[in-house]
Amino acid sequence: MDTIFYNGKIYTEDRAYPICSAVAVKNGVIVALGADEEILKTAGPETEKIDLAGRLMLPGFVDTHLHMLFYAQEASLIDLTDCRSYGDVKRLCAERVAWAKENDKWVQGTGFNQDDWDVKTIPTRKDLDQITEDVPLTIRRTCHHITVCNTKAMETMGLLEEKEDSTQINMGFYEDGSPNGILKEDSQNVVTDALPLPDKEEIKKLILFGCNQAAAQGITELHSDDFLLIPGEAGERVMEAYRELSEAGELPIRIYQQCMLWGKELLQDFIDKGHRTGESYGFYRVGPLKIVTDGSLGAHTAYMRKPYANDPQTKGKANYTDEQLYEMCKLAHDHGMQIATHCIGDGSLQQILDAYEKVQMENPRTDCRHGVVHCQIMDEEQQEQFRKQNLLAYVQPVFVRYDMNIVDDCVGSDLARTSYNWRRFEDMGVHQSGGSDCPVEKFDILPNIEYAVTRTNRELQKSWYPENAVTLEEAVKMFTYEGAYASFAENVRGSITVGKYADLVVVDKDIFEIPVGEIHTTAVDLTMVEGKIAYKRQ
Fold this sequence. Notes:
alpha/beta, Diaminopimelate Epimerase, Chain A, domain 1, six-stranded mixed beta sheet, 19 helices, single chain, nine-stranded mixed beta sheet, 31% helix, hydrolase activity, acting on carbon-nitrogen (but not peptide) bonds, TIM Barrel, YtcJ-like, Amidohydro_3, Amidohydrolase, Metal_Hydrolase
């Protein structure tokens, strides 16, 4: 026996044996469960025996939607998350200007949310010019659907001469017709294009940083959307970096790649190179095609069927026509790929429901596990369509912390009440897994579990449609078994079951015994991936 954990509460997520006190691991696989005395008898002279001292063990956490490389990259940017005014933004960014000028770099901030400010207005390039006129400066909104640039940055990117009636860039303009520096959606890629691209060794460093940070949160598997780190490529450089790390045994946790490929040409290139869902390189596997159909509620770019209640001039923006979306789905579906589609508005959701239904009718496939990322704004009829198609829901419970303050205003209370409705999905038997959308939110799993159950903003003591919450047991399942199910791995991971891989997490509090509103205070003590300790709290 390699490792024995004993004297704990082991929550297995396996109905056949839900709770035990000890588990034995050999060659990366769970080989025995039971009482302390029984399992300790199997120890050999080389067995590592770990006393849980009453602590709780759970199956390893799975985050089924985030942007890990962007998180790692943004760790070096100015964190604007806690800013409560534009003045705070100015102060933090100004501190970086001298360094950027000296080193020929840009000043970049991320995570601002004007809804948290005293004046709830998104700044423009002229506002950012007050910070610096000499150094390119950009700040990205917390939703990652808006980036604001100063004049120097706009000039560097060649965007100052763009005209509202002829531009191909999704951007804003002042009343005098000049660009206001606000870039939206995929047009933000012009910023990335203007910056030096990381080489393969830099990408590896980003991967290892992000994976180690995730392991410290009890995460054993990430479903990460990373391809846009290198715009214009069909993921070649990113995949190569991951493969080399995995084949060298240096990848500490599992990665299931959500393959972001903008447009049919990049997807065709990817397929022509022989890539498919399930392609495996140890801890690194190719997952679904990732499609982004719309934007965000906060930016009013989520695509709605009806105009926004608080902005009747717009229904948001669809990134694809119905035909374009169908063609993307058909190409992926016909070549055996899984598909995961970003949909926040009910308009974009209807688009993808129709596209999925059409491609499946034309080419029936069993167990393709197509899904929808976010699944936010929807009515009950759409939920029923979702169920009938047996789609996966990738949800982010922590989003309610902020979104509860804007959804009713954006879409009206009738539609808000049927949205973010994880309770109904559970009752309907829909497979829904949990994610963080990091770096939009932190990838801390335990607070996510808490929000799934409470739907309460702790700071405001505000609860939002609590009848749509799930139970604690269901929330844990979202981030364990259902995460494994989303990557076709439920038979080998996702529960503490004899014969499955030893992907485990130990936490310092029993989340089933403490008040549910205190789950976020729980700390991860140990993370194990396939029998190897990936993180241990000092």
